[in-house]
Amino acid sequence: MSARLDRVLGGGLVPGAVVLVAGEPGIGKSTLLLDVCGRAAREGRRVLYLTGEESAAQVRLRADRIGALAADLWLAAETDLGAVLGHVDQVRPDLVVVDSVQTVGSAQVDGAPGGVSQVREVAAALIGVAKARGIATLLVGHVTKDGSIAGPRVLEHLVDVVVQFEGDRHSRLRLVRASKNRYGPTDEVGCFDLSDAGIVGLADPSGLFLSTGRGEPVPGTCVTVTLEGRRPLVTEVQSLVAPSALPTPRRATSGLDSSRVAMVTAVMDRRAGIKVGQADVYVSTVGGVKVAEPAADLAVALAIAGATTDRPLVPRTVAFGEVGLAGEIRPVGGVPRRLSEAARLGFTTAIVPVGALESGRAPSGLRVLEVADLAAAARVATLRAV
């Protein structure tokens, strides 16, 4: 199996374990699991891939395209639970993939496939077979509009591991994280690169989120270090500030929480003397990555400040910290890991909240500047309010 997925699962698939893989339609769940099946089959396991959404011919074409074909990889298209269990009896696999559990129905239960009673019955039957025969099983699950797993909540309680497959359709990056894991931690994240040729695990995805091919520093950019689970990711934030011709200036964001960006903008205008209230402000992340944690506030503020004053930051600088309504920079967690990742990638200056280094030393070659508020951060970053 992929080392990145093994890491999320806590070391790999355990015989008899049942894993529920959830994600939006078209995000790449089937491609990932087909790649997993191909790897497992080439390692000597007998694998059965059951699809209820496509024909076996369609699945085979995809397997051929991504290089997942193997002698011990068996494909079948079934939507009846009895037929599915019959294939399991016949093939006697070590690994079973059911894509998806909402498309399989039981003749013993009233209702269409995907209903609460049907999903409960199908999942219980598949889990029973997996436990009795020691078969590792991967169940694909649909999600609702709000991102939660479709079907009864009991489905998540029945399985051993619940894995969320996330990503933006317009970006190649995919993140896999466990929200429940009986065999390992739930704070690990696997990063994958999805392309037409298949899906590849990324050991070092930080380069996807930085601009390349640029010479001199550009005003309106700032690099931050976010934490996805326990993994630090270096991400670049870009901003453009322009005079507004509208009565209500525009605030547009991509990859960032718009309400949080609006709050940071208001704090800058009121507390740091950087006047952006009457300007259009556009803020985006590089590479399509989504940043939700408050630790990116300081980078957002410095990017907007640089775009406003038309002055770039000191080259090779990173910044992280939460911005409060009083303009203060609040501490964030995981500081040693963030600093180590910045130093590893060649950054030489880090702007952090006061007290961030109380529990340890800065990595070699990294100058750490502690700031108490936004005004101080703008000064040490060589920015001046206009």
How would you describe the overall organization of this protein?
With 386 residues, the chain is an alpha/beta fold. It folds into 2 domains: 3-203, 3-Layer(aba) Sandwich (Rossmann fold); 208-380, 2-Layer Sandwich (Ribosomal Protein S5, domain 2), CATH 3.30.230. The protein is built from 10 helices and 18 strands. The protein has helices at 3-9, 29-42, 56-65, 81-91, 116-133, 154-158, 258-271, 297-309, 335-344, 374-380, and strands spanning 18-23, 47-51, 73-77, 95-99, 136-141, 161-166, 173-181, 189-195, 198-201, 221-228, 231-243, 251-254, 279-285, 317-319, 322-323, 329-330, 349-353, 367-371. The strands form 4 sheets. The protein has a 9-stranded mixed beta sheet, sandwiched between helices. It has a 4-stranded mixed beta sheet with strand order 10-11-13-12. The protein has a 3-stranded parallel beta sheet with strand order 14-17-18. Strand 4 (95-99), helix 5 (116-133) and strand 5 form a beta-alpha-beta unit. Helix 7 packs across helix 8. The longest helix is centred in the N-terminal third of the chain and has 18 residues, at 116-133. The chain starts with a helix and ends in a 6-residue tail after the last helix. The mean pLDDT is 89.
